[in-house]
Amino acid sequence: MPDWEAIFAERGRVFTEPHKDMPRIAEVFKGRGVQRVLDLGCGTGRHLVFLSKLGFKMYGFDASPRALAMAREWLSESGVEADLKLHKMEECFPYADGFFDAVIAIQVIHHNLLRDIVKTVREIERVLRPWGMIFITVPIDRGPGQEDWGFEMVERGTYMPHKGKESGLLHHYFTEQEIYRVFDSFDILEIYIDDTAHRCFLGTKKKSRAR
Fold first, then answer.
1. Would you call 133 helix, strand, or coil by DSSP?
2. What is the CATH number of the domain that holds 61?
3. What is the pTM of this model?
4. What are residue 172's DSSP bridge partners?
5. What DSSP element (H or E) covers 139?
6. How far is CA 20 from the centre of its chain?
7. Distance separating the N- and C-terminal Cα atoms of the chain
8. Which domain holds residue 160?
9. pLDDT tens, position by position, for the chain (211 residues)?
10. CB–CB of 106/47 below 8 Å?
11. How many domains does the chain have?
């Protein structure tokens, strides 16, 4: 079954530009005193490089050794640094409680069963400091251009494509209501749909759930 390791081997860096809203998000982070940022599912490093250049202390993990190797190469080429680890997002994060000021996850967190996504969200909460920030993007539906992916429903809202560029990778499609339910330990400050048909949301860890 194909996975991200195979995709990176075939397609290289895959994503070469940061999310179009990342410059604005970086300004929000700076205004709230963010310094340490975790890029969850950092891939080949587009946001590690971008945010490191802006002075953030960047950390990232990914389940693909090939992606991490390319990220390290890209960081080195750019003259910046980040702390990288080989790790799966559904497992306990290798960081202490309250270690980060912010966590970003761009087109990543939906690649799992809902029960494993919930585990990931609880770990995001755990490693964030009180009032720490999140910026996360998820697809809104199966969308244009995906009609021929051969989707098989695995559970409500979760599908496995058997054809197309992400064949073999689970896709969970969040409703807006589901985002508020799964991310109930966060105050959602913004939620909107970007021009790639992904729902983006910016939030802060709730005081009542601060550790």
1. strand
2. 3.40.50.150
3. 0.88
4. 158
5. strand 128-139
6. 15
7. 39
8. 4-209
9. 346 555 555 554 566 789 999 999 999 999 999 999 999 999 999 999 999 999 999 999 999 899 999 999 999 999 999 999 999 999 999 999 999 999 999 999 998 999 999 999 999 999 999 999 999 999 886 554 555 677 888 888 888 778 767 777 788 899 999 999 999 999 999 999 998 889 999 999 998 644 4
10. yes
11. 1
